[in-house]
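About this split. The held-out portion is used to measure sequence recovery: a designer receives only the structure tokens and must propose an amino acid at every position. Recovery is the fraction of positions where the proposal matches the reference. Here is one held-out target exactly as it appears in the evaluation file.
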């Protein structure tokens, strides 16, 4: 299975903490988010990873190299104009010949990926979204939209703006996708999973499912979320590996 790590963002909101470097290079307990995520993906059995780039791309290339020190083959694609989370997938359409994975590069998430993949295949989903329960999973409160699930895990509602507290379940920014979903994404334009693709799939009653993960989700997009992550780690609520 191949994975795409989304790392093209401009890192504006986290700049007071990151010093202007790309968000995935923000350090948590002495190591970058990106390095921790690459090591985790290797531990979970992945061997090929793409990273999309836009903002200060050479910093990420220099930090990661070819990925061999993580036990991975890492390749890069630079976006002259940011294409959005789903647009980045469409930009690499020829790579997705089988079930694949998308990971948000500014999130530090730990969960059982094999359990997510099994869930995805058992339900014959075209997209499965890892979600966390905000009442019981450690988190920084900055991750994606709210998710409402049916008893079988089918997503009934996806609200990108979490101000509407309809559900305690939150998108953790890790997706398993089938190649057929790529055709639903327009080529060469900005297109977002939460704002564009997921509502389209829901309206068409396609196979969009949510899997309640174990572990934790540290979304790291603002100075406040970074401080919250450090607090959770120092209190022992999050055990970094």
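Reference sequence for scoring:
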């Amino acid at each position: 299975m191949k994975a795409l790590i989304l790392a093209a963002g401009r890192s504006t909101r986290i700049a007071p903490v990151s010093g202007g470097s790309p968000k995935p290079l923000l350090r948590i307990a002495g190591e970058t988010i990106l390095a921790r995520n690459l090591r985790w993906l290797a531990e979970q059995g992945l061997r090929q990873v793409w990273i999309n780039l836009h903002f200060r791309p050479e910093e990420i290339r220099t930090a990661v190299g070819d990925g061999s020190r993580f036990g991975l083959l890492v390749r890069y694609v630079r976006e002259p104009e940011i294409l959005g989370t789903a647009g980045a997938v469409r930009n690499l359409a020829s790579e997705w010949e089988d079930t694949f994975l998308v990971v948000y590069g500014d999130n530090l998430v730990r969960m059982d990926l094999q359990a997510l993949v099994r869930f995805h295949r058992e339900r014959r989903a075209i997209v499965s979204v890892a979600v966390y329960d905000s009442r019981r999973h450690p988190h920084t409160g900055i991750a994606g939209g709210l998710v409402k699930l049916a008893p079988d895990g089918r997503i009934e509602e996806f609200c990108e703006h979490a101000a509407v507290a309809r559900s305690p379940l939150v998108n953790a920014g890790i997706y398993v996708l089938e190649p057929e979903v790529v055709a639903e994404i327009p080529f060469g334009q900005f297109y977002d999973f939460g704002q564009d693709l997921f509502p389209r799939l829901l309206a068409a009653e396609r196979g969009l499912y949510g899997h309640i993960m174990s572990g934790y989700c540290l979304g790291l997009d603002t100075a406040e979320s970074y401080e919250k992550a450090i607090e959770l780690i120092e209190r022992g609520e999050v055990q970094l590996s």
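Annotator remark: Residues 90 and 183 are 8 Å apart (CA to CA).
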